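Input/output pair, single chain:
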Amino acid sequence: MPTEVISRSPETLVTALPYELNYMTEELRKRAKTELFEDEDTRVHSLRLLKTMLKEENDLMWQDDDLFLLAFLRARKFDVKRAFNLVKTFYNVMGKHVELYHNFNFADVERTMTENCLGFLPYRDAEGCVILIISTARWNPYENSLADVMRTLTCGLLHAVRSPSTQVAGFKVIVDFNGFTLRHLPHVSPTYLWLFAEALQNCFPARFRAVHMVNEGHLFSYIWAVLKQLLTKKLRERFHFHGKNVKKLHKYFSPSILPAEYEGELPPFDNSDWAKKMKQSAAYITHVYSYGYKKHKKNKKEDLAVEN
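Output:
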């Protein structure tokens, strides 16, 4: 498996796959076959069948892009009916959140990215998963609302899931509640907790393998009391709580791919390289938001007419 050397010492040689990986490694091809029941014939047949089903969804303008649609098929282990339902849910949820995705302007995402409150680590873990960092300490809710953060998060997921390796290996998330205070809590609405839960389990074409909470204090209990009600038992079991002991992350991730604030060997978390990659994909991400159900597009136009 091709890897990049990221840590070298006289005793050890640590290697890892990079975040940006636009091909499928041999190991991940094998996992796609054993875990997702994927092979060439299945891919071709499933894509053809999914497109046929989507063409019959008359009210839906959908993105006829094989790599985009494969994300839905892989997320549902090539069960075409479930993948079809996932596509419909994806567009329905996107259409209902007008404040996030209508009149999408990538400049809003750029502004939020400069806050460095979220982004992906430069290297994947031992299972090939990309690792998303969300840091509340760097989030100023008066500069960037939770809606801004959710919009940027969605764009980041869309960018990451373009990689076939990410479609197979999946995502892991580290949510750092260090610095989360009473000034943040009123901005965490149940609506966006629901959207976060939906993205994890029902509406986004990705395999979410684990969510790790660190530095979660007593205020987090209010968030978890709501969030856990929205998650299936299967998803709840993928949440791990580490408190102030960030070194517990080393049980799940090699220190060689973690930033310094988690007692890792990399410099402190900085999303600037990831932000550059995101900007290069701005046209693609904007293109994704041009699709959806006609009824939602019509409702948006009517709402704008009323506002004007």
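The longest helix spans residues 80-96. The radius of gyration is 20 Å.
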